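In this supplementary section we document a worked example of the pipeline. Step one takes a protein sequence of length 257 as its only input; no multiple sequence alignment statistics are reported here. Step two produces a three-dimensional model, which step three serialises into structure tokens for compact storage. The input and output of this example are shown verbatim.
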Amino acid sequence: MISATSLYAAIDLGSNSFHMLVVREVAGTLQTLARIKRKVRLAAGLNGDNRLSSDAMQRGWQCLRLFAEHLQDIPPAQVRVVATATLRLATNAADFLGPASTILGCPVQVISGEEEARLIYQGVAHTTGGSDERLVVDIGGGSTELVVGRGAQALELFSLEMGCVTWLERYFNDRSLTRENFERAEQGRRAKKSGRSPFGCWPGAGKCASAPPAPCRRYRKLWSPRAWTSTLPSASCCSLNSALFIAASSKSWKSKD
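The serialised model returned by step three reads:
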């Protein structure tokens, strides 16, 4: 019989998918007992006023009822539930979070973009090998996190309000990669003027400065060994922000000139 005190669970309420991981601690190591992922597409339920639809909430609660079945033997103090971009944005997030906490029997914490980036980096650093220096890019449904780090330490954290679901529904809802749609997406990126972009450029700027700041130089260094590029030119730094979401978009793209 498994001792309840050795069980832990982590639940991630993402904008595209909900994830749950249940583990058991055995002699200082973690053994995975359950790993569940459901594509809820919570971000698709956001309207123009950032209100979450009733249908999207119902999809989320239905998934959480499944998760709750696996939490019955785990002490609430050993369960952590976090919510990310969509529930940071939703003006009626409380309407979802109250029932969600009741279903799971534990509180749901809405974390900041920077905290999300930090946790993403920790996960990558502890589960992968390779170079001691890393650039980690996580394209989610409602936001994109970029982290520069060394070893287990995150050095620079960035969170962009650009996700594959929100950008798809906002600018590519006809599922066509047309020049017009892409230009609208570029305009949307330029309209986001709060904070600095991860490449040392101010949002809305047409190009990086002639002498790129330290974050931009560090990104070039980290990307240079990659097979797909030998350098990251200054001109590419600005456009990369808008290109990130394409990599994680649906497979139903139709490319048109």
